[in-house]
Request: fold
Amino acid sequence: MRDYLSTTLSLDRNIGRVLDYLEKNNLSENTIVIYTSDQGFYMGEHGWFDKRFMYEESMHAPFIMRYPGVIKPGTMMPQLVSNVDFAPTFLKLANVPIPAEIQGKSFDNLLKSPKAKFRESVYYHYYEFPGEHSVMRHFGIRTDRYKLIRFYGAANFWELYDLKNDPNEMNNIYGQQKNVTLTAELKRKLKDLVSENKDNVALRLLVEDN
Reply:
């Protein structure tokens, strides 16, 4: 934990150096500053390790932006965005054409209207197994309330969580009769996201499931 927090302290210190430079050189009002990172490691949650599972603790990543004249300080953006949305957003803000083959979509409209509609769900896929991390292959969908995960490879199974009633994801409700309609709807949305992200591996598995 000390090593982990020391790393964070070092980041804070050097981000401060960058911001100080912008301020001293009269660049702060004409520069967009973005802080984001990889997702965080588990610190014992679920008894897990690493950071590649699709559970809440490691699915979240920070995204902080300073955009003078556009974003009011302290603004919170509650919408779901994916890291595939970063590149098209940055290109749009720089007035650079977004290539047709690029994945994701720009959320530049949210910067001016934080409550505007954007995504109803986000997609995740981890496929490097066995590898040094030994995290089972899986992909899935997260909405504002539910998360559906499909594990595959050495074992094949599904997990479904109600994040409103079970925020720590301790109760897998997949396969329960009362959730049949919900599961079917989430699988349909998952297939749409798989196609949107051009993930042929996941698409093949979903077709085989049917």
Observations:
- Helices lie at 2-24, 56-59, 86-93, 108-112, 180-196, 200-209.
- The longest helix spans residues 2-24.
- The radius of gyration is 19 Å.
